Amino acid sequence: MPEKSFKITSDFPYFKGGGEMGQLIRTYDWSNNSLGNPESWSQSLLIAIKILLNSRFPMFIWWGSDLIQFYNDAYRCSLGTDGKHPKALRQRGVECWPEIWPVVKPLIDQVINEGESTWSEDLLLPIYRNGKLEDVYWTFSYSKIEDETGITCGGVLVICNETTEKIQARQQLIASYKKQNALNKELRDSVQQIKDSDSRFRDIVQQAPVAIGTLKGRTHIFESANDKMLALWGHSREVLNKPLLVGLPEIKGQPFIKLLDEVYDSGSAFYGNEVLTVLNVNGTLKDFYFNFVYHPIKENGDQVTGVMMIAIDVTEMVLAKHKVEESEARMRTFLNAIPQIAWTNSISGEAEFYNKSWYDYTGLDFDQSRAWGWKIIVHPDDLNKMLQSYHAILQSNQVGEFELRLKNIDGEYRWHLTRLKPINSSQENVQSWIGTATDIQDLKMAQQRKDDFISIASHELKTPVTSLKASLQLLDRMKGNLSEKMALRLIDHANKSMDKVSTLIDDLLNMGRINNIEAPLNKTRFNISELLNSCCHHVRVEGKYELIFKGDLELEVEADEHRIDQVLVNFVNNAIKYASNSIKIFITVEKLDKSVKVSVQDNGPGIPAEKLPHLFNRYYQVNESAVNTAGTGLGLGLYICADIIKRHGGQIGVDSEIGIGSTFWFTLPL
Ligand code: ADP
To answer: Which domains does the chain have, with CATH numbers?
Structure first.
């Protein structure tokens, strides 16, 4: 507080009281102010200040030409802190209010010049206070204060009220009204939307292609049902608002009430698939099949209050499926009855069913055979070709076939002819495939033998024929000057070649018989001695070898005489060929327990023991280097013999010792 050069005496009547502002006015050194000391102030001003200081209403005075300012405690609040107060007291108006002066000054001028009071309500006058420019609203009145002459205007009295709080509250209110209005609108829109979607939802439920209904309470009272559900038991029945069992008494004894109880009690949904349901439709009990769900309706969290039922009538589909299943069962029964292997597979090639013959042949079970598991029994050399053919047939949608070797339960591969045929649900639509595999092993073997034979025979024939041709050509060329010795040699040579050709032709004839191997045996009852007497006529005629019969020659057998003769001739011919020094050939007939045994014995060189097991194999020859020698054959004779005896149910074999001789024998059942 500066040192006061002017002291207002305590009894100065105008500046008494007035709180903080009264104190400031009193203590301020007015001598430095353009108004000078208070003693010199106009009476009007002093009176106005007195009123101002004693008023609880915010008041403000601009006085004199400098518009020096006074205000009271009530007004002081509006100046805030860190701003204009206390400097505003005794300050010039223009210096104090630069921010609002352009608005305020014209009003002051209006009052001073025209003497008219002003009234402004809730006017926004932003002022600098509290360290910043703030929006402040005022309601105020400016009125003139005449000087004591009553003619001139000495100053302006401002009676004002700051309405910022009121305005802000009102603005907030408006904003919140606006917000509320917006919210209300949103709410209304939402309610409308819910109403719309609810009604849409109801429409959807009502028109849904599935039956939908709700049951209320533990007694399952039928609360609502859409058209589809009502149609299930005929619209004429009144089922709504009744317990389910009352509305649909025919479901008693069917599983539904129990299921509903469980859903209600557990709160967990139940899903039924193709469930048979008997319903009373217009007085007639009818079978239906449904896929359905019973779903608990929960309120207040977990409280189950009812059950929603959604059901799809799948009766037509199930009946059609049953028909297909029946026809499939019939087809499977049929496939199980046929001797061939048979199966069905999907359009992608995965096997779905195998018949009994498959399991008997392969020894696999279904799990091992399913999908493409069956590939393990296909011969590895046939697998790739088989897969190519298989896929090509599946893609063609046409019947197709291929050959492959399939391994049987004993591990033996046998050739099969596989046929695939599409099963069509319509003209183009292949639904599945049926496959069969027929055992063609014997056929294949016969074919193989024939092919092998032709290639071997043509090769074997070529050598003696070439040699025969050479001898004849030589004879022809030398016919004029041919010595007797030379002629004899060439003729002998030609004869040997001719013998070889003739042996090979015999084999060819035998081969013809092989190809007829599957021809049925022509069995008759005959006496063994008859057989022996007519057999080997050619040997007897030639007279070089002696056939000696021994044993029980009167025994009778039932066999194909022609074929047994073929075996016997083969044994004798071999004895002549391979034991040519043995002039005596013994043919013995013995009666065994249930069979007759016929043996052909020679005293030839014998056969090494290690070769014996192979003698009856196809094309087997003990001395392979002898192939081209005149008199040897193709290694087929014994093979054919073995086959004939096997087909008669007999046995064939050989006993041989090196240097002693060989005994070839066979038995026939009696
Ligand atoms: P091939 O048609 O070649 O005569 P076979 O099947 O009749 O063939 O005979 C097979 C082989 O058995 C002959 O190559 C021969 O070596 C041998 N063999 C057959 N019979 C006798 C026998 N009595 N003594 C010695 N070896 C024999």
So the answer is: 13-161 (3.30.450.20), 184-319 (3.30.450.20), 338-439 (3.30.450.20), 520-670 (3.30.565.10)
